[in-house]
Write a structure and sequence with these properties.
about 325 residues; alpha/beta; Rossmann fold; 6-stranded parallel β-sheet; two-stranded antiparallel sheet; 11 helices; globular; binds thiamine diphosphate
Length: about 325
């Protein structure tokens, strides 16, 4: 969680220098969901996600250098410098892909779960979605199909209450999202999204269900993004959400809570935290230097992976 936070803080610090050629959607404040979920998955399990990618990509073990190359549009990017921040992938570790289309990753994850079930691979597939993704028709279709086929898929809903700058109350009838999901015949639970151990435990239950043929689970985790929907900095001053609301959530910062728990129980001490900070800082420096030293794609690269019929034939 600390590594994700520090990586994003550095991305944010440098963002307006305009060397990164990508939109960004920071997860600062939402680290416990990515880390808690991935802690319960195996490397061979697959993870999909929408546009808010950095946390899950790093938590699943995605390569930091390749991520920063992607964000700087360099040849060593994890998506071949075609995707930017919203399209991170690292197949070595089961980070199976992310999509800028809200809801786009959900049916792909269900398809991957169907494939895993048909091949009897024992593989679980998880997909991260936001509260707005629940409003997309394809999410309903995906829940229905996953329930019908008892697929080994986990729908992980990070409910941060806003879609860009629109609050839930203007977008959905008053309801509890995981209770709505349960109407599809899916096991559905709520979990405290700032408590990494609670997230890990809820996901472990869902993984066990999926691996033993019990079918899908929908997990709803209330969280809060401390930054704007997109870009660097906070945008609460524009008036769509209360500054006091954000400040109240900052009191339950998932990293601070876990740090306090670990230090109170004697699992961690201040010098271990300092060593962690130093290791992370060195890794981040290295990864940015690597990205900035990597070459731009060539014109030839532009045509790789492109399918187009030859007009001369
Ligand atoms: C199909 C589609 N509609 C609209 C958008 C524009 N859009 C990008 S992010 C976003 C908000 C998504 O909110 P949510 O799924 O709750 O995730 P969050 O941004 O809160 O993490 C919207 C509407 C899009 N990318 N795709």
């Amino acid at each position: 969680m600390l590594r994700i936070r520090r990586v994003e803080e550095e991305i944010e610090r440098r963002y307006n220098q305009d060397q990164m050629k990508t939109p960004i959607h920071l997860v600062i404040g939402q680290e416990a969901t990515a880390v808690g979920c991935c802690a319960a998955l195996r490397e061979s399990d697959l993870l999909y996600c929408s546009h808010r990618t950095h946390g899950v990509y790093l938590a699943k073990g995605g390569d930091l250098r390749a991520m920063l190359c992607e964000m700087h549009c360099r040849v060593n990017g994890c998506a071949g410098s075609r995707g930017g921040s919203m399209h991170l992938i690292d197949k070595r570790v089961g980070m199976a892909g992310t999509s800028a289309i809200v809801g786009g990753a959900v049916p792909i994850a269900v398809g991957a779960a169907l494939a895993a079930a048909m091949k009897a691979e024992g593989r679980v597939v998880a997909v991260f979605l936001g509260d707005a993704t629940v409003e997309e028709g394809v999410t309903s279709e995906s829940l229905n199909f996953a329930a019908l086929k008892r697929l080994p898929v986990i729908f992980f809903c990070e409910n941060n209450f806003y879609s860009v700058q629109s609050p839930l109350s203007t977008r959905q009838p008053a309801r509890v999202i995981h209770e709505w999901a349960a109407t599809y015949g899916i096991a559905a639970v709520a979990v405290d999204g700032v408590n990494v151990l609670a997230v890990q435990s809820a996901t472990a239950d869902a993984v066990e269900r999926a691996r033993t043929g019990g079918g899908p689970t929908f997990i709803e985790a209330p969280v809060y993004r401390f930054r704007a929907h997109g870009g660097a900095g906070d945008d609460s001053h524009t008036g769509y959400r209360d500054v006091a609301e954000r400040e109240a959530w900052e009191q339950v910062c998932p990293i601070r809570l876990f740090d306090e728990y670990l230090q109170d129980t004697g699992i961690l001490n201040a010098s271990a935290v300092e060593a962690m900070e130093q290791g992370i800082a060195a890794e981040i420096d290295d990864a940015f230097a690597f990205a900035l030293a990597s070459p731009d794609p060539t014109e030839e690269d532009l045509y790789r992976h492109v399918y187009a019929p030859d007009p001369t034939r």
